[in-house]
Task: structure prediction
Amino acid sequence: MTETYEVDFGALGKVEGRLPHGACLSEVLTIENSPLLFGCRTGICGTCIARVDAKGGTLPPPTEDEKDVLSLLCPNEPKARLACQIKLSADLTIEPIKLTRD
Ligand code: FES
Result:
């Protein structure tokens, strides 16, 4: 049996049903089931930046490329991840981060 996970957006709702282990968030989250937006889907643009908490499990750490983008766009947020780079391996709580330009 394949493990499945829940994706919760807190006050913004949650994905109906459970998503399969290993699913790429950029492929299973859509405008219909998620408040999170995706742009490039390759880890470059930062559109999908969000605070991500894994509940009852862990996610693989960000790659060096993801760390580089996060350090540029959101250097003071330790829970920030690029959602498009995440494959499901735990229940997640995701809070989109709105980036502002100075
Ligand atoms: S969609 Fe562009 S970095 Fe995730």
Summary: The radius of gyration is 13 Å.
